[in-house]
């Protein structure tokens, strides 16, 4: 991460450094380089292994690229031609603050994905909207604070907050563990969160599919192993994307993923659609990731290049494909 993010902290905020700050002006007649910031945070700067690779790929395309913590109050977001939300992985714990930041940045420059998309996609109640529009989704019951805790009596269920990432505060429960499942829901309610309850999809043992789209076009896909392999306990140290392997989606998976994106009806530089097979073998949407998903770019030949090219087109960099 040298040259991108320094390890200094000021009031818990990552200090950022733009390598090109203070550099000489461009030679006469040459337009200044387009400026792009990749938004991250402390967790992202520590764990996003693709971040330095993406900054380097953008710079190779003549873009003045840097990475910056979204909560860095000293960073000049308005000076950027575009801000790409990349690995702001702590946003679920500071949602109101993060949404306010997105609104501020969206008002002064080109934010991607846009603030209205961020607000909509930050709460998984969007699944209810997708289902209402005919997109096949995992059946989901949302239980807000004050609602009656009514759980299905058969099969394993998954309980998690509607604002969550990386299986945070999520657990799987058997029919014999319904009391523990209800206690989990009530704990989320007591914390002011909406709980979501889903049937455990047994065919996730065959792998969860992650289809990645860049600039509105399919780029690549991977298959991930199941995360909630045990029952009855919350474990926030679980690996969120275990056993990654390359995957070639079939026509049904592509159709469902594209239907989800079309139903969302939002502009997007990137998107990830997570699918699982239902009991009847048909793919259904588990999540539509439009904020800060791991895009697994380095796992796919040409993935980094396609991402950098999409950003170059976005900002009109000279020589953009």
How does this structure look, described?
This protein is an alpha+beta fold and 321 residues long. Helix content is 26%, strand content 24%. It is built from 8 helices and 15 strands. It has a 5-stranded antiparallel sheet with strand order 13-12-11-14-15. Helix 3 links the parallel strand 5 and strand 6 (111-112). The two termini are 28 Å apart.
Number of helices: 8
**Percent helix among the residues?**
25-40%
Separation of the first and last Cα atoms: 28 Å
Q: Which class of secondary structure composition applies to the elements?
A: alpha+beta
Which strand order spans the largest sheet, edge to edge or round the barrel?
A: 13-12-11-14-15
Gyration radius from CA atoms, angstroms: 20 Å
How many E-type strands? 15
List low-confidence stretches. 1-28
- H/E element string? EEEHHEEHEHHEEEHEEEEHEEH
| Shape call | globular
Main attributes?
single chain, 321 residues, alpha+beta, five-stranded antiparallel β-sheet, four-stranded parallel β-sheet, 8 helices, 26% helix, disordered N terminus
Give a quick precis of the structure.
This protein is α+β, with helices and mostly antiparallel strands and 321 residues long.
How does the SSE layout of this entry go?
Layout (H helix, E strand, L loop, with lengths): L4 E6 L2 E4 L18 E6 L1 H6 L3 H10 L3 E6 L12 E6 L7 H14 L2 E2 L2 H7 L4 H7 L8 E3 L13 E5 L9 E3 L4 H13 L4 E5 L8 E7 L2 E8 L20 E2 L4 H14 L5 E8 L5 E7 L13 H13 L6
